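Late entry, evening session. Most of the bench is empty. Finally got around to the prediction I had been postponing all week. Sequence below, unchanged from the version circulated by S.P.
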Amino acid sequence: MGWYTHWFGTPYYKLLYGHRDDGDAAAWVRAIAGKWQLDQHAQVLDLACGRGRHAKHFAALGFRITGVDISTESIAEGRSAVPDAEFIVHDMREPLTDARFDAVACLSRAWATLIRSPMTSGSSIRWLPCSSPAAVSWWTS
């Protein structure tokens, strides 16, 4: 596995992104949820969810959240921060089996890395487990 399997759990990751606060996450989630106009209990995948700072706000809006991230440390923090959400250690380059979502959000720079990866050849969008293509959002917060 590459450097990214361990880097996100290091103190350097927290130093680099430590300025990202709760208010920032709340504003992004409100904007995205407003565009989606999904039912309150819609199932949302937070792809490359990190420590769950966006998942927390999606859950507060009533969405059922599943967060996936490659970092074991980040997933552990997410589980503590958002106990009502499901968090899974998962490599986003691989499909989630037997999972369907009403919407998929990727609020990290991970998507840009993924679509340029020779391992995915830019075809990643085909496997996204989303029932509504209009509800797939890629944002760099």
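Two things to note before I forget:
The chain has one domain: 4-138.
The helical segments are 4-7, 11-17, 22-36, 53-60, 72-81, 110-115.
Will write this up properly tomorrow.
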